[in-house]
Sequence to fold (392 residues):
Amino acid sequence: MPFLFACDPAMPQFDLIATATFGLENVVARELKDLGYSNCRVSDGRVLFSGDEHDIARCNLWLRSADRLLIRLGEFPAGDFGALFDKTIDLPWNELLPVDAEFPVSGRSVRSRLKSVPSVQGCVKKAIVENLKRRYNRFRFDESGTQYPIEVSLLKDVATLTIDTSGPGLHKRGYRQLTGRAPLRETMAAGLVQLSYWNRERLLIDPFCGSGTIPIEAALLGRNIAPGLGRSFLCEDWHWMDRSVFRDARTAARDARLPKLSETILAYDHDPAAIRLSERSATDAGVAVDIRFRRQEVSDLKSKREYGCIVTNPPYGERLGDTEEVEAVYRELGRIFTPLNTWSIYVLTSNRWFEKHYGRRAPRRRKLYNGRLECQYYQYPGPRPPDPQSSE
Ligand SMILES: C[S@@+](CC[C@H](N)C(=O)[O-])C[C@H]1O[C@@H](n2cnc3c(N)ncnc32)[C@H](O)[C@@H]1O
Fold:
């Protein structure tokens, strides 16, 4: 166990960064707050907080909308290669990296004087090697062991040096082997659900479920199932990460699961292959009992229920020739959703004319990126359901 930034040597604390796609940073900060981390600092694409190795395990297992969890080793002004090298060499690499560590360095540079990313990466790599030479008394490192992926990120001449603890991105939950057309990232789907008024007491419908990402992420949330329970994380193999840390975090996560949802989630799509795929993924995610999938045209959607929620990601019409068809679908949505006047409705699309075809301006909207595609999340929050206590 490294004694990094330790006030109490028994409990070394790290600066941690949960990275997030643009627009979801505050959702990730709220998740962290709900997990008990109160001192979070939010900036573009990341949320900074602190924690020990138990927190690294917990956050990897539990964060729903974050992309990765990084350890921040240092952040400092680096307007030239001299400053970058000198500051990097002084960071406590030798406390985290064993002698056989494989430590690939990736990099990026935004609005900074050091523009050549390969040169920046090379400089950081050289500085880390020098640091390790001091500790291990060697000239060469064969990097034959476990990976410790390092990133140097330059923004306005400030360098941030991090080590990735997650490995594959946190959207890789492990339940989705195959996907249909244009699937949403699991982290984005979890974000959409958390930005909505839905909770486990309310009915949720996704009429364009595709590979089922929104309903599955909602079911995981509603049953308090940690999204990372079905996968492993890179840092589990690190030499200073005690085996018991992840084992205990997984046991606690299994114990925290709630029983089956009382309100079954409804998920529809007109494509039978999408429905088959979704059913399989829901089974693999352990939430098949919570979702009813059915092949259905959106024009057949109706409900007598009140105060339900619709969270959906309809087709966008990005491909040439699809636009008219998609706009007809949006007009249809306007017609079908009109009687659902107590419902809360949320639609993610890149189509800039959505509101015009749907027929109502959204009281709230949020810019989000689905991959590289700029989208808007159109939000039509409905009235609050009556409090069941008040009628007693
Ligand atoms: C953008 S994809 C949804 C992706 C989904 N959120 C996921 O993560 O996989 C849109 C889906 O809408 C379905 N769809 C298109 N037109 C439809 C219609 N008229 N009725 C029902 N489903 C439709 C398509 O089959 C496709 O699966």
Remarks:
- The chain has two domains: 14-164, 186-228+264-385.
- The longest helix spans residues 117-136.
